[in-house]
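Input:
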Amino acid sequence: MTHVGYAPGKLLLSGEHSVVYGHPAIALPVSLGVSVYLEPTDRPLELPNIDPRLSAAWRSVLPSFGYRVRIETNLPIGKGMGSSAALSIATLRALASAKGFTPTFAWLYEKGFEIETHFHGNPSGVDHALCAMEQSLWYEKDGPKLEPFGIPTLRLLIMDSGTKGNTGELVAGVRARHPQNESILDKIGDLTQEIGHTLKAPHPDMKHLGSLLHQNHIQLQALGVSTPTLDHLVDTAIKAGAYGAKLSGAGGGGIALALVENSEPIADAIQKIGYDCFTIETHTPKESL
Ligand code: PMV
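Output:
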């Protein structure tokens, strides 16, 4: 019998990189995700040839005999939308199904951490915590502190820079420039706190939120994880009328997000300069959290 596990991708609204140093991050699930199928065979473990780090991660948790792994995904891979964490958690859910138990959050979080370290040595844990919880999250690495974080409906334009960033290398680069970059990380921490307060207001001020997201991008630029293309996408979106925009995820490529009222003119501007984009809306009801 084939066993399947699913996990959604994520967006980091704020707190990438600074979360590795104990500051908070706000992460949102998206309706795109990854399914991992474990198909029974009578041969040694067969893996799709995607990435050697992924193969090592799979070999570390799956039985060495009796399954072929197949994946289906509509989540852009390696673009800062948490694809490695989604693959990890989806694999663990398929494995739990094969072993006949219902995975707890604690098991997914602990095992997910082990798998994520194959991708980048020092993960904060926010990506796979979000994948395992499947709801918007306020996350702090120390503890860890994980709080469901209800947010209002936000319309976000996701803009694809067309290249992939290497999370492990980017995190290591920030570490190599530490502690000289500490004040930048602190500023991102403060901005995340203010973004959190703004989102919790009864009627969040979108202009203010957009400005905070843009300030966050400027700090990520100063941290050295943006690229000229990401900067161009952010500037183009703001000039076309977005409330604000920032890179999202580790940077070095991947995606940027823009907070928008009406995505059409902004999507047109992004497509005119030659980049793909799509709109998503967040849907976490405040009352339920
Ligand atoms: O690019 P992604 O989706 O892997 O996001 C990484 C987020 C970082 O803060 C840069 C790293 C981490 O472990 O939190």
